[in-house]
Amino acid sequence: MNQPVDWDSLTFSLTPTDTMYITTTLDGAPWTPGNLQPYGDIPMSPAAGVLNYGQGLFEGMKAYTTSKGRIVCFRPEENARRMQRGADRLKMPPVPESIFVDAVEQVVNANRHWVPPMGKGALYIRPLLMGSGPVLGVSPAPSYTFLIYVTPVGPYFKGGMSAIDLLISDHHHRAAPGGSGGVKAIGNYAPGMKPSKEAKAEGYAEVIYLDAETHSHIEEVGAANFFCVKNSVLYTPELTGTILPGITRDSIIEMAGSLGYDVVEGKVDVASALEADEAFCCGTAAVISPIGSITHEGTKVVYGDGKPGTITTQLYDALTGLQNETEEDNFGWIHPLPQD
């Protein structure tokens, strides 16, 4: 049951909560709504497709306590659609949007006492879709499991809105054309642990990955999307199948346009990024994290005075204001948790 939480010391880490949601499908049968059950381990065959061949996806979402005293989610329909696209890529049965969103509502409501107070963090929501049935030989699993668990979290990067230092990886790449980089496949993340840990050991917050073909264009920041700003124009890598189509990324593009800024989606070469006025990375976990410096081939480039840039701060305030309902939601992105 509910345990006391020190909201002020929350980090981005796992705190087991009370309840999770789970449903399964077998032999091509349609998905049906699942059930809530106590958070805990689940039985699985050692020959499960997800364990042997990585047939699995995950999503990342957050629920917030807002200034209106209610609990809301942020664009959950977009997470449902992204998981459907990923399911198609990994040959899994897509979870219907209605079941996905209903499951989110149920599990957040069941754990609502774990949602931090406004300004103290958020309830991180982790949907998982995986081949849970046994299979030997590289082929789709015979059955699948969709589940959601939640945990209260603080900022992804230590220091919250403080500027972070990043290192461009010269030897590792996140994804290649034709691969699975454009979906949130579980197999995309383990290979990043080695370069990330090595960068952190050198004092950096995370690594920046370049494209696998020319090694000259910025693609992603660890598990976050990249933006830079030059002469009040925002630049971000285009979606060509090698980077994740972030929901926060999409929101920032639309929000920046509404604030009067031009946004260019295209190839972002390293040289132009290092000459930018400011830079930041973004994602559900990271929200918006200003980049204070980027180190490439032994040369460290500092943005401004190493503090969050003006436009970065403006976008952060606009996004978090919308999520906290201190600003008007003119986009229809806020999804209130239904009241019992």
Quaternary state reads single chain
Number of strands: 18
Query: How many helices does DSSP assign?
Result: 7
Report, as a whole number of angstroms, the end-to-end distance: 20 Å
If you had to describe this structure to a student in words, what would you say it looks like?
The structure is a single chain. The chain has 340 residues and is of the alpha+beta class. The protein folds into two domains: 7-153, Aminotransferase class 4, branched-chain amino acid transferase, N-terminal domain (D-amino Acid Aminotransferase, Chain A, domain 1); 164-323, D-amino Acid Aminotransferase, Chain A, domain 2 (Alpha-Beta Barrel). It contains seven helices and 18 strands. Strand 8 (164-168), helix 4 (193-201) and strand 9 (206-210) form a beta-alpha-beta unit. The longest helix is centred in the N-terminal third of the chain and has 14 residues, at 76-89. The radius of gyration is 20 Å and the shape is globular. The two termini are 20 Å apart. The model has no long low-confidence stretch (mean pLDDT 95).
SSE order and pairing:
Elements: E1 19-26, E2 35-38, H1 49-53, E3 56-58, E4 61-65, E5 71-74, H2 76-89, H3 97-110, E6 122-131, E7 143-153, E8 164-168, H4 193-201, E9 206-210, E10 217-221, E11 224-230, E12 233-237, H5 247-258, E13 262-266, E14 268-269, H6 270-274, E15 278-283, E16 287-296, E17 299-302, H7 310-323, E18 334-336
Parallel strand pairs: 8-9, 8-16, 12-13
Antiparallel strand pairs: 1-2, 1-7, 3-6, 4-5, 4-6, 5-18, 6-7, 9-10, 10-11, 10-14, 11-12, 11-15, 15-16, 16-17
